[in-house]
C-alpha cells in the first residue's frame, strides 16, 4: 500500500472516531459534499443522505427559527481570512424529530479563482445537554425572581403590619397585665427577626437576579415616604429625626429596587445610632457631572475608614460586632449599582456618623 493510500485510510479512520460531525460545505451548490459517520449517531442520517439532499439540506434539517441566522452566518464566511475560524450555534432536527443543538467551528477550505469561498470545512459539536442545563438555570432564575417579588411584597407587607400592630398595642402597656406586655415584647422581637430574614432573602436574591425591567423615572419623595411608613416602628422607637432635601426630584431606575435600597440604608442608620445623642438622618439628592447622587447621612457611631470599608460591602460581613445583622444589604446594593453602571461609596469616621452615597447614571449621559 502506498504512503498516500495509508494516509488517506488513516484520515478516514480518524474522521470516523471524532465525536463531532466533520463536514465540507460547497458555497456554490449550497450543499454538503462530505460528512463523517458521526452524523448517523448525532442526527440519524447517513453521510450520503445528507449529500443527496443537495440545496434542500437547510430546509430539511435546520430548525425553522435558526434558518435565517445560519444562512447569514455561512454567507459571512466569505469575509473570513484564511486560517481564521468562526463559530455559530443553531438547532437541527434529527431524523426522529428531536431537536439537537450544535456548535459549529468553521474555516475556509478552498477558494474559487476570484478569491471567494468555494468550500469551507467545519466540525459540529453536540451542545444539547449544555443548552438544556442553561434553560434549567433560566427557569430557576425566573423562579428566584418570582420568589424575590413575593418576599418583597406579599410577605414584607403583612410582617410590617404585624410589627406596627404590636407597636400600637405596646403603647398601651400600662393598661395591660404584665404577662400580656411580655407576650407583646416577644411578638415584636419575632416580627423584627422575620423582617431581617426577609430583607436578607430579598438582598441575596436581588444580587443574583437576571435581566432587569425597563427603567423609569422614580419620584424620590414618594419612594422615601413608602420607606418611612415601612420603618415606622424603628423610627418611632429611636425617636429619629429624618430630613429630606431632594435637589434632583427623580432618578431613572426601578421604584421597587430603590425603595429596598433606601430602606436598608435608613434602617442601618437607625441600627447603628449613637447612645449619646438623638438620631438624625438626612436623605438628599443632587446632580454631580453626569450622575445623580442620593445620600443617606447619619450622626451615628460612624466607621473607621479605610479599615472597615472592605467589611462594609462584603457579603455576610459587618464592620460592627453589635448590634447584629445579616451582612447582606450593602453587598447587594453594591452589586445592583455596578450592574447599572453606578457606584456606592461611604464616608465617615468613628463616633462622627457615616454617609452612604448612591451614584446613578443620568439618561443620555
From TrEMBL:
Disulfide bond listed as a keyword: no
Pfam families: HATPase_c, PAS_3
Domain PAS: 7-68
Gene3D superfamilies assigned to the protein according to its UniProt record, in alphabetical order: 1.10.287.130, Histidine kinase-like ATPase, C-terminal domain, PAS domain
Keyword set, alphabetical order: Kinase, Phosphoprotein, Transferase
Domain of life per record: Bacteria
PAC domain mapped to chain residues: 86-139
EC number per UniProt: 2.7.13.3
Record's catalysed reaction(s): ATP + protein L-histidine = ADP + protein N-phospho-L-histidine
PROSITE patterns in UniProt: HIS_KIN (PS50109), PAC (PS50113), PAS (PS50112)
Enzyme class: transferase
Molecular function, one GO term: phosphorelay sensor kinase activity
NCBIfam families reported in the protein's UniProt record: sensory_box
Name used for this protein in its record: histidine kinase
Amino acid at each position: 500500500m502506498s504512503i498516500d493510500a495509508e494516509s488517506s485510510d488513516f484520515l478516514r479512520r480518524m474522521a470516523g472516531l471524532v465525536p463531532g460531525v466533520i463536514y465540507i460545505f460547497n458555497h456554490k451548490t449550497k450543499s454538503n459534499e462530505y460528512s463523517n459517520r458521526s452524523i448517523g449517531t448525532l442526527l440519524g442520517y447517513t453521510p450520503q443522505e445528507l449529500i443527496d439532499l443537495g440545496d434542500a439540506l437547510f430546509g430539511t434539517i435546520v430548525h425553522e427559527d435558526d434558518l435565517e441566522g445560519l444562512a447569514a452566518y455561512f454567507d459571512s464566511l466569505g469575509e473570513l481570512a484564511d486560517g481564521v475560524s468562526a463559530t455559530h450555534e443553531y438547532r437541527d432536527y434529527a431524523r426522529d424529530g428531536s431537536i439537537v443543538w450544535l456548535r459549529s467551528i468553521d474555516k475556509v477550505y478552498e477558494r474559487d479563482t476570484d478569491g471567494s469561498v468555494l468550500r469551507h470545512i467545519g466540525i459540529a459539536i453536540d451542545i444539547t445537554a449544555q443548552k438544556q442545563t442553561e434553560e434549567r438555570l433560566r427557569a430557576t432564575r425566573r423562579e428566584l425572581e418570582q420568589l424575590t417579588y413575593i418576599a418583597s411584597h406579599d410577605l414584607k407587607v403583612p410582617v410590617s403590619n404585624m410589627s406596627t400592630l404590636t407597636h400600637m398595642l405596646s403603647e398601651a402597656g400600662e393598661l395591660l397585665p404584665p404577662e400580656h406586655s411580655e407576650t407583646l415584647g416577644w411578638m415584636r422581637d419575632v416580627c423584627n427577626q422575620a423582617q431581617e430574614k426577609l430583607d436578607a432573602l430579598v438582598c441575596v436574591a436581588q444580587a443574583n437576579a437576571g435581566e432587569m425591567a425597563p427603567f423609569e423615572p422614580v419620584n424620590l419623595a414618594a419612594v422615601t415616604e413608602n420607606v418611612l411608613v415601612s420603618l415606622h416602628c424603628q423610627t418611632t422607637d429611636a425617636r429619629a429625626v429624618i430630613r429630606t432635601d431632594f435637589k434632583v426630584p427623580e432618578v431613572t431606575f426601578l421604584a421597587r429596587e430603590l425603595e429596598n435600597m433606601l430602606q436598608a440604608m435608613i434602617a442601618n442608620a437607625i441600627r447603628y445610632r449613637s447612645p449619646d445623642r438623638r438620631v438624625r438622618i438626612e436623605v438628599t439628592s443632587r446632580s454631580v457631572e453626569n450622575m445623580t447622587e442620593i445620600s443617606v447621612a447619619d450622626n451615628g457611631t460612624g466607621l473607621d475608614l479605610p479599615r472597615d470599608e472592605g467589611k462594609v460591602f462584603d457579603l455576610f460581613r459587618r464592620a460592627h460586632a453589635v448590634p447584629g445583622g445579616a451582612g447582606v444589604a450593602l453587598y447587594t446594593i453594591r452589586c445592583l449599582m455596578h450592574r447599572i453602571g453606578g457606584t456606592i461609596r461611604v464616608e465617615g469616621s468613628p463616633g462622627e456618623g457615616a454617609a452612604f452615597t448612591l451614584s446613578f447614571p443620568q439618561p443620555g449621559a
